[in-house]
Amino acid sequence: MKKALTVIAAIIVVALIIGGIAHYVSTRDDQQLPPGAEPAPTEAPPTPEQPDWCPTYEVIAAPGTWESAADDDPINPQANPNSFMLTVTRPLQERYTPDEVKVWTLPYTAQFKSRQAMDQMGYDESRDEGTSRVRGEMITTHEQCPKTEFILTGFSQGAVIIGDLANDIGNSDQPIPADRVKGVALVADGRREPGVGIDPGYNVPGVGAEVSLEALNPVVGLALPGATMRGPRVGGFGSLSDRTFEICAPNDHICDLPIGVPNAIDRAQAIADNTGIHAQYATNPDVIPGQTTSQWLVGWVEGLIDN
């Protein structure tokens, strides 16, 4: 019995040795190829497929302050029937089927706390909420529909949100690759700088309120609790600079201010009020030659899609 166990143990040891030698030889052969020989080609990862239900384009529109709500319907927004962005999104929805173009309007708490409206959400919190929701929408669409291209646009507070995302995408390919963005259009962007992006209008010389008032944040905070003026965007729009448009009406205090406005508190309150020229982009003929901003935006989107 003892002899039989010894024989079995010997057989096992020999088998292990042979197996080890075979593994060594095969591994060595893979690592040390004969001179001039090339390793067998590895297959490239498959190109992600685009499901049939995916739209060819997705237009994302971000409304301005008081023009949206957190529980609004992103496909059929109802929060504010006078929202500027509706003058752009509705014609597009009438022109294209959802299979061709998905038009998605950002639902967020578009508010701006001030001394006269202390019950409102603060600007920073509102902006962060909107940014998070747009990022989520883009990531979800790109994961499900990797070939869908995006067209991004926003007004006022919504322009700041879309502009900040364009800054991220153009400089880091996040949260989606820059080559998936067909174009960006910002209307009355509070972080606007002349020469950053393309101005289709009259090359307004001023800067956005957040750039103008950045150095006066302690004073601005007295008029607008919870609002931080973040200054210019580092890196501009990066690789998206050649397809990002900045639209600003002359003398609009949101996007056309001198640096360091002396009466910072009064100017900050005017920013929160959203009145005057800032509220007239749908009808003002003096922003872009020959047409209103709404007409230009609709034509711009149609041009990107149809061409």
Automatic annotation (TrEMBL):
Residues 36-49 have a biased composition (Pro residues). Residues 29-52 are annotated as: Disordered. The keyword Hydrolase applies. GO terms for molecular function: carboxylic ester hydrolase activity. Pfam families: Cutinase. It comes from the Bacteria. InterPro entries: AB_hydrolase_fold, Cutinase/axe. Keywords: Disulfide bond, Hydrolase, Serine esterase. Transmembrane segments: none annotated. Belongs to the cutinase family. PANTHER family: CUTINASE 4, CUTINASE RV1984C-RELATED-RELATED. This is Carbohydrate esterase. It comes from Corynebacterium aquilae DSM 44791.
